[in-house]
Amino acid sequence: MTDTSAAAHPHSRSCDPYLGCPPWEIGAPQPAMLALAENGELHGRVLDVGCGTGEHTLIAAASGLDATGIDTSARALRTAEEKARERGLTARFVRHDALRLAELGETFDTALDSLFLHGLTAADRAVYVDGLHTVVRPGGRLFVLCYSDRHTGEPDVPHKLSRDELESCFTDGWVVESVEATVCRSNVHAGGIAAWLATCRRT
Ligand SMILES: C[S@@+](CC[C@H](N)C(=O)[O-])C[C@H]1O[C@@H](n2cnc3c(N)ncnc32)[C@H](O)[C@@H]1O
């Protein structure tokens, strides 16, 4: 694992959720993300932001794409690397702060965000989306999966976004092509969690 986190954003130094088994850790890709790969929506160089244990990086790699996952949790990234080895897949995992994407010094054709953006403050969302604009090539696409305010089941979940809140993150330099209602799997919610899948094109 490459580690570029020496200058990590303060938020990335909070307690590592992978010391336990966090609710989003389902040991498989989220179905909405898997469907993107199966429908041929992933292209070129793929960046998986806040990749966790790498399930979505690895579906890109399994599609024969050049796949990079970044996260601040060394523990999660080690698990991701183990999964890649076990599955015979080639993917790159980098310990890097998603609020400093421009410092990667690379560009990508596709970016994936599964459950990362929704956990940021409004100010950090703006910083993050600016960074995405730098690293996603013009015409490239970003797919964002996040919890939705349509979730009413118990237990409740944090970070639920309305469709308007999600779309408002992408007013400058992006076209929101679609926002679809979907469901996220969780290891706590048997029926899943209501979610949005946004498709955004970088202008
Ligand atoms: C809710 S989890 C989602 C993980 C994975 N994408 C998934 O769907 O299973 C959010 C991830 O963002 C990572 N993360 C939190 N702050 C970060 C930051 N500033 N830069 C990069 N990754 C970060 C966490 O370590 C965690 O793996």
List key phrases describing it.
single chain; 203 residues; alpha/beta; Rossmann fold; 8 strands
SSE layout:
Blueprint: E1 2-3, H1 31-38, E2 45-49, H2 55-62, E3 66-71, H3 74-87, E4 92-95, E5 108-114, H4 122-135, E6 136-147, H5 163-167, E7 174-184, E8 193-202
Parallel strand pairs: 1-4, 2-3, 2-5, 3-4, 5-6
Antiparallel strand pairs: 6-8, 7-8
The chain binds S-adenosylmethionine (SAM).
Percent range for helical residues?
Answer: 10-25%
Give the number of helices: 5
- Per CATH, what is the topology? Rossmann fold
Distance between the termini: 32 Å
Domains, number: 1
Describe the oligomeric state of these chains in a short phrase.
single chain
Taking the sheet with the most strands, its summary is: 8 strands, mixed
Mean pLDDT over the full residue set? 93
CATH superfamily: Vaccinia Virus protein VP39
Gross geometry: globular
The strand line-up of the biggest sheet is 1-4-3-2-5-6-8-7
- The assigned CATH architecture is 3-Layer(aba) Sandwich
Q: Approximately how much beta-strand content do the residues carry?
A: 25-35%
CA-atom Rg in angstroms: 16 Å
Structural category? alpha/beta
Bound molecules: S-adenosylmethionine
- Tell me the series of helices and strands, N- to C-terminal: EHEHEHEEHEHEE
Identify low-pLDDT runs: 9-13
